[in-house]
Amino acid sequence: MDHDQLIDLTRRALKLARDKTTDLAPRPHTVDASDYTSMQRHLSDRALLLASPQLVGYVSELAAPGAYCTKTVMGRSILLTRTSDEVVRAFDNVCLHRQSPVVTGCGTAKRFSCPYHAWTYDNTGKLVGLPGREGFPDATVKSDSLTELPAAEFAGFLWVALDKDATLDVAAHLGPLADELDSWGIGRWSPLGEKVLDAPINWKLAVDTFAENYHFATVHRDTFATIARSNCAVFDSYGPHHRLIFPLNAILELENVPEEQWDPFHNMVVIYALFPNIVLSVTIANGELFRIYPGDEPGRSITVHQNSTPLDLSEESVAAGAQAVFEYAHATVRDEDYRLVEGLQANLMSGARDHLVFGRNEPGLQHRHITWAEALAASASVG
Ligand code: FES
Ligand SMILES: [Fe+2]
Questions:
Q1: Residue 373 pLDDT greater than 80, yes or no
Q2: CATH number of the domain that 66 lies in?
Q3: Angle at Cα 302 formed by Cα 377 and Cα 348, nearest 5°?
C-alpha cells in the first residue's frame, strides 16, 4: 500500500477514534439461523469454495526450485512444488496405486517415494519408479502422472483451483486489491508454520469473528483490547472482498503530531476478508493467514492458521520470539473467539430463535453475508 493511502486511512481511523464511533452500514441486516445450521446450505457452501480460487499459502513456502509443501483443503490433500523452471505446480497428493498420500509436510525434494509401496514421482508429478512392475502391466512409467491442478503464485500467495478443469484467474478474482496485497510483501516474509483448529462451529461463524471489532472490549478485554480500540473500524469493500482497519489505542497520540511524522503502521491492524473463506491480518511484524473451511457437517469447521514475519529468523532468539507471538495470537483466537462462538453455534442449532442481526456498526459482517448470499443465488440461477 502506498504511503499516501496509508496516511489517508490513518486520518480516517484517527477521526473515528476521536469521535468514538465507527464506519456504519446504512441499516442493520438480518440473516437466518439456518445459514449456520442447515445441511442444504452446508453443501452449497462447500460447492462455493470448490468453485473459487483458493489461497493456500505464502510464496515463501516454495522459496526455491526443488521446494515442496503439502496443504489440506476441505479434506483434499494437495502437493505443491516449485520445479526447476521456477514454476509452481499443484497435484492431488494421491498415489496412483492405492491412494496413499505420496508425501507429507514440506521441504526440498525432487522425487517423492510413496510410503506404502514406493511408487515414485518426480516434482512434475510424473511416475518415475514402480517396484514390482510385472504386477501392473497397465501402468506406464515416465508417462503416468499424479492429477495436476491449476496453480499460480500471485500477489505473494500460492493459489490453486480444486477442479482440475477450471481456469484459475486470480487477477480477475482479486481485482483492484491485487496490487495492494502484493505491496505488503507478507507472502514473501518468512513462514512460521501452520496451526490447525478443528472447531464445533460453522465455518461462517469462524469467519465472522474476524469481521468486526465490536467484541474486543468484552471478549478480548485482557488481550487485544489492551492495545486496540473496540467498536472502531474503517471499512472498505472491493467487490466480494473487504478491508477493515482496526486502530490501536496509540492512534490518539497522533492528534498533536504533524502528518509528515506519522508512522501509520504503528497505529493499526489491517484485516482483509478475501472471498469466500480467507482472512489476512497484517501488522508491522506479522502477516497472519486464516484459511477457513467447512467441515464434514454444518456445525464443524477447520481453520488453518499461518503466520509470516519480516524478521530475520536465523537468530535463535528472534525465531523464538516470533513463534511466541504466533502462539499468543493463536491462543487468543482459540481460547477467546472460537471458544465463545461455540455457544452461538449450539444456540443456533437448538432452533430457539430463527434469526440473528448484524448492526450498522458491523459493516464487515454484513458484507460477508451479503456477498456469500449473492454468490449462492448466482450459482443457483446458473446451475
Ligand atoms: S499406495 Fe502408493 S505405492 Fe502403494
Ligand atoms: Fe476476536
A1: yes
A2: 2.102.10.10
A3: 60
> Three-class SS of residue 177?
helix
Show the domain range for 16.
Answer: 3-53+171-381
For residues 234 and 351, state if they share a domain: yes
C-alpha cell at 139: 501402468
Choosing from 145, 167, 189, the residue where a domain stops is: 167
Q: SS3 for 244?
A: strand
Specify whether 267 is located in the same domain as 122.
Answer: no
Identity at 44, one-letter amino acid code: S
pLDDT score, position 265 = 85
Whether the Cβ atoms of residue 48 and residue 376 lie closer than 8 Å to each other: yes
Cell reading at 47? 460447492
Q: Which residue has the cell 489440506?
A: 72
My answer on whether 130 and 43 are in the same domain is no
Domain end point (choices 167, 191, 212) = 167
Q: Write the pLDDT tens digit of every residue in 182-216.
A: 999 999 999 999 999 999 999 999 999 999 999 99
Same domain, 87 and 14: no
The pLDDT > 70 percentage for the chain reads 100
Beta carbon of 95 within 6 Å of any ligand 1 atom? yes
Is the domain of 178 the same as that of 162?
no
What is the per-residue pLDDT across 296-344, written as a single tens digit (0 to 9) for each? 999 999 999 999 999 999 999 999 999 999 999 999 999 999 999 999 9
pLDDT in tens, 215-251: 999 999 999 999 999 999 999 999 999 999 999 999 9
CATH code of residue 288: 3.90.380.10
Phi and psi, residue 231, nearest 5°: 55, 45
Query: Are residues 81 and 16 located together in one domain of the fold?
Result: no
The Cα–Cα gap between 217 and 50 comes to: 36
Which residue's CA is the nearest one to ligand 1's atom 4?
117
pLDDT at 324: 97
Number of domains in the chain: 2
How far, in Å, is the centroid of ligand 1 from the Cα of 120? 9
Does the pTM of the predicted model rise above 0.90? yes
206 CA → ligand 2 middle, Å: 10
Residue 97 Cβ < 6 Å to ligand 1: yes
Confidence band, pLDDT 50/70/90 cuts, at residue 47: very high
SS3 283: coil
Atom of ligand 1 minimally distant from the CA of 95: 2
